[in-house]
Amino acid sequence: MEWSFQSAEELTTALRAGEVTSTELTDEAIARIERDDEAINAICVPDFDRARAAARDADRARARGEDRPLLGIPVTVKESYDMAGLPTTWGMPQHRDFLPAEDAVQVSRLKSAGAVVLGKTNVPLGLQDVQSFNEVYGTTNNPWDQGRTPGGSSGGSAAALAAGFGALSIGSDIGGSLRTPAHFCGVYAHKPTLELVAPRGSVPPTVPAWPAALDLAVVGPMARTARDLTLLLDVMAGPDPLTLGVAYELRLPPARHERLGDFRVLVLDEHPFIPTGTAVRAGVQRVADALADGGARVERHSPLLPSLSESAMVYTQLLFAGVGARFPAETYEQLRGLAAGLSADDRSLDTARLRGLVSSHRDWVEANNRRELHRQGWRQFFAEFDAVVCPITPTPAFPHDHAPDSLTRRLDIDGVEYPYLDQLVWAGLATMPGLPATAVPTGLSPEGLPVGVQLIGPMFEDRTPLRLAELLERELGGFQAPKREGGS
């Protein structure tokens, strides 16, 4: 039997029943990587010797009667997480030889849960792209169409899952970096509520791995099934033991509902800043139809929904404020001069990006106050609704575009070109207020490319969108393995 596309839950059942060993699962995963990854380039830092040793340890532990959540399950880890003995570069050539001294907290939690780490997955330079390519490790290709991107910045993790390289992976998200690769590769991902999952050790190689969190950024799980997302989130979630973990323990509330017919859902497929392509709009409609057929209350409009335009502007300013804070002083001053010439009436996203790059602390506090108004609006919204269904990006996976300046790139939406970075507005809808969002595959486009949507839920009620994802998986069919040349 071939195990590579089985879920972690199914593999655990087989391991418990003695139908397979972790050593066998790991050897099969490594053989598949060695056979197929030359064309995909998802696993940028293999760790096969330690993986085989960990698998043998898992088999011995199970023989002793141990049974941990991920005992013996092969997984991968995004390159941006520190793993002792392996390089952490974030795709930056000057750091190709940097070796962290200890594991990131999430890598430690994976190992404590018994997972077998096969290696690290590829990322874009500095994690700052909707694609995954860099000078250190090269370009990761989409398993569905190698001429297209798997997304970014967790593109290597999504491609690995779609190709059968391990049952689970962990990634990170600030601009859709979990959700977009899941959407492009036809897998599942969950952006947790802000600060629900400790990020320590997921830092650039020049930054100390201290227990500090970036604004907007989260780390989270990726999988081929919705139930596996929940399994992995339960391993990852919880405060950092060096900070809030000193005083607090995690207790996530249960999902609001167990039956599809009990959910109250707002469905969106239009954004004021960018159109939604035909293929993605069809995917949203498939979800809306499945919800309605299951008896859920489905609405297309609500006066309670916070402004999408305002949300995009605040998100853009906060996102680029974080980027600009790391610029050299000379560059920062040049940008300040450009921003000073902007019209006060200019409300374009390009202007929001430039103003964000040169934000003062006063500017940031003002934007943060606007964010708090949105959070209050979302609290009121979620008193009447349980989830929002909407796009992750306007299109399925697009062809590789390695133009060095992302501001000059264009995104083709049904034959019309739009600014490349404008596609981030859908991801920002959940990111800006810190809401949880689950990426769910809905099927294939007419061109045979995966299409996904995101399910946005109430803050710290992560089990609600995850449960809805599980119910929709039953209705929509869930993950499909891409065909490869010469067979399945």
UniProtKB/TrEMBL annotation:
EC number of the protein: 3.5.1.4
Organism per entry: Streptomyces pseudovenezuelae
InterPro entries according to UniProt: Amidase_CS (IPR020556), Amidase_dom (IPR023631), AS_sf (IPR036928), FAAH2 (IPR052739)
Short name of any one Pfam family annotated for the protein: Amidase
UniProt GO molecular function: amidase activity
EC main group: hydrolase
Keyword Hydrolase: yes
Protein name, as recorded: Amidase
Domain Amidase positions: 24-464
Tree of life domain: Bacteria
Keywords (A to Z) from UniProt: Hydrolase
